[in-house]
């Protein structure tokens, strides 16, 4: 009997100055060790690496803060795992920008919302236009769609655990999935490309630090 050994072909590429493994077109945006290839924009929240995850921690009296990739992306699939804090709002920016001519560099663009439980809305995976138009999906004035979105969000989200998020941006369409279930499906062509950004939402005057976590962040560009 012949034994056949199939090896996994892994190449190495440079993304934002970091050598990362590439497997079947996927690139690791986070190497699990440090924040090389990323830069902070916006507020005063801090980011560090702990146990193979990026930990974002709030700062009092700070506006929203973002840890952003130095590289921009247009059409892609982005996957990552996220662990929330029930007292804190967060999200992940895609196709986002920070331009001197727009509100003094304010980070703006599409955000996959990772909303805190305290609001009782559970719009995990919704799409919010940070720094511009607000809610895009579900539309804020569409109460029926919003109610269905909330019901699904409460069912699929794992409180206090790691949750898997998938975002697909292709052409004028952006889709999201939470733990394998479809969430948002938006058609909007306002911004075709930009950076990926990990948000730590402002917490007002709250002195007690609150943290959220991301890990296994990978991206596949769509040609």
Keywords, please?
1 helix; mainly beta; seven-stranded antiparallel beta sheet; 223 residues; disordered N terminus; ten-stranded antiparallel beta sheet; Jelly Rolls
Could you explain the architecture of this structure?
This protein has 223 residues and is mostly beta strands. It has a single domain, classed as Jelly Rolls (Sandwich). The protein is 6% helix and 46% strand. It is built from 1 helix and 17 strands. It has one helix spanning 143-156, and strands spanning 11-15, 18-23, 26-28, 38-42, 46-50, 53-57, 65-69, 76-83, 90-97, 108-114, 127-130, 134-137, 163-170, 173-178, 181-187, 195-200, 211-221. Strands 1, 2, 3, 5, 6, 8, 13, 14, 15 and 17 form a 10-stranded antiparallel β-sheet that branches. A 7-stranded antiparallel β-sheet has the order 4-7-16-9-10-11-12, with no helix packed on it. A hairpin with a 2-residue loop joins strand 13 (163-170) and strand 14 (173-178). The longest helix is centred in the C-terminal third of the chain and has 14 residues, at 143-156.
CATH architecture: Sandwich
C-alpha end-to-end distance:
42 Å
The H-and-E topology, N to C, reads as: EEEEEEEEEEEEHEEEEE
CATH class type: Mainly Beta
Largest sheet: 10 strands, antiparallel
- The CATH homologous superfamily is named Exo-inulinase, domain 1
CATH topology descriptor:
Jelly Rolls
The total strand number stands at 17
Number of helices: 1
Provide the β-strand percentage band: over 45%
């Amino acid at each position: 009997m012949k034994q056949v050994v199939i090896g996994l072909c892994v190449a190495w590429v440079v993304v934002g100055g970091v050598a990362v493994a590439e497997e079947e077109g996927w690139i690791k945006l986070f190497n699990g060790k440090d924040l090389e290839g990323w830069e902070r924009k916006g507020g005063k929240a801090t980011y560090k690496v702990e146990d193979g995850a990026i930990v974002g921690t709030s700062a009092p009296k700070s506006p929203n803060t973002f840890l952003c990739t130095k590289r921009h992306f247009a059409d892609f699939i982005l996957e990552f795992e996220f662990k929330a804090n029930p007292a804190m709002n967060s999200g992940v920016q895609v196709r986002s920008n920070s331009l001197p001519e727009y509100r003094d560099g304010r980070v703006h663009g599409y955000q996959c919302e990772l909303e805190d439980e305290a609001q009782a809305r559970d719009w995990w995976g919704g799409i919010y236009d940070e720094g511009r138009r607000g809610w895009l999906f579900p539309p804020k004035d569409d109460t029926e769609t919003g109610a269905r979105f909330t019901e699904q969000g409460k069912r699929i989200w794992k409180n206090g655990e790691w949750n898997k998020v998938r975002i697909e941006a292709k052409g004028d369409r952006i889709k999201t999935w939470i733990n394998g279930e479809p969430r948002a499906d938006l058609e909007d062509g306002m911004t075709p490309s930009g950076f990926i950004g990990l948000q730590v939402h402002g917490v007002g005057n709250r002195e007690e630090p609150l943290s959220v976590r991301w890990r296994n962040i990978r991206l596949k560009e769509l040609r």
